[in-house]
Design brief:
The protein is of the alpha/beta class and about 300 residues long. It has two domains: about 5-210, P-loop containing nucleotide triphosphate hydrolases (Rossmann fold); about 220-285, Alpha-Beta Plaits. It is about 35% helix and about 30% strand. It has helices at about 45-50, 70-75, 95-105, 110-120, 130-145, 160-180, 190-195, 215-220, 230-235, 260-270, 280-285, and strands at about 5-15, 15-30, 30-35, 60-65, 80, 150-155, 180-185, 200-205, 205-215, 220-225, 240-245, 250-255, 270-275. A hairpin with a 2-residue loop joins strand 8 and strand 9.
């Protein structure tokens, strides 16, 4: 696989505030990434630098091996769908699709029209008259039909109901399998998209704290529940990222691999062992109570 994005010690500061703090990672071609974290963590700032909308304070950034700033050859390979996208007041939905055809070399107009029909978007309606959900649907249509080698969705489905979000996920994975490209999903609905993600990156307070294959990460955290003394004995020496007490009972979440013998030990001790969802894991790691700051690679 080729490298699509390279960040090396990238930093973006606003006065004394470090919105992005020495972040380094790379993204490969033809892979679906989750760029996750809380509001204000620095995710959108990173995406704005990747798409050359803001300059980095320091560090190195390459997209398709080149500096993206004022580089039309590189920028024409990127489609950035963001929830705050603005359109001219006179634009109708059809105008957005026709304009997109001039911006993206791989644009598939027939596919865009079929998506508009599926999402029930009226092509002749002015963009300023669309509901929040319809605006999100137009962004999704542009992102999918662009077939851009690097396609970024930043909270693309605000206002969409569950049926429309499910339609987006289905069409994304379907079209990705036919036309592979690098896709970045940034969203709060982590559990909904977790089955789509191949690699997960988590940003917290401007720093990269997780950079790991999604499949490996899904089996990395477990919750143990049982008598307090038994749980405490079992988790000794293990990395605990969350705990809750209920009288003599204790629930503890640990991160790390448990082998077959450890699982048998937990069961024999009367402990309840359950997996932790990707969303819950990220909540525990970014809730301000955890001291882990190193990136897992």
């Amino acid at each position: 696989m080729g490298t699509v994005i390279e960040l090396d010690q990238l930093m973006k500061s606003y006065g004394d505030v470090k919105a992005v703090n020495n972040v380094s990672f790379s993204m490969e071609s033809n892979k679906i990434y989750g760029l996750l974290g809380r509001n204000g963590a620095g995710k959108t700032t990173i995406m704005h630098m990747i798409t050359a909308q803001i300059f980095a304070t320091s560090g190195r950034l390459k997209v398709f091996g080149e500096d993206p700033y004022e580089n039309n050859r590189i920028l024409s390979q990127i489609c950035f769908v963001k929830e705050s996208q603005k359109y001219p007041d006179i634009y109708r939905v059809n105008d957005v699709l026709l304009t997109s055809a001039t911006l993206f070399p791989n644009w598939d107009h027939d596919y865009a029209l079929s998506l508009a029909e599926e999402f029930r978007i009226p092509l002749k309606r002015r963009m300023k008259k669309l509901s929040r959900g319809m605006l999100s649907s137009v962004g999704i249509i542009v992102g999918l039909a662009s077939r851009a080698p690097l396609t970024i969705f930043d909270e693309p489905y605000l206002g969409l109901d569950a049926v429309s979000r499910s339609l987006f996920y289905d069409r994304l994975i379907e079209d990705y399998s036919l036309h592979p490209r690098t896709v970045i999903l940034s969203t709060h609905l982590i559990d909904e998209v977790s089955h789509l993600l191949e690699h997960v990156m988590v940003i917290d307070n401007g720093s990269l704290i997780i950079n790991e294959d999604a499949e490996m990460l899904r089996g990395r955290a477990f919750n143990l529940a049982g008598h307090k003394d038994t749980v405490e004995a079992f988790i000794t020496g293990k990395e605990v990222i969350h705990r809750e007490s209920f009288g003599n009972l204790l629930s503890a979440t640990i991160i790390g691999h448990l082998d077959a013998s450890e699982r048998k030990e937990a069961e024999a001790s009367g402990l309840e062992l359950t997996p932790v969802s990707l969303q819950q894991l990220i909540i525990y790691l970014t809730n301000g109570k955890n001291q882990r700051v190193e990136a897992r690679v």
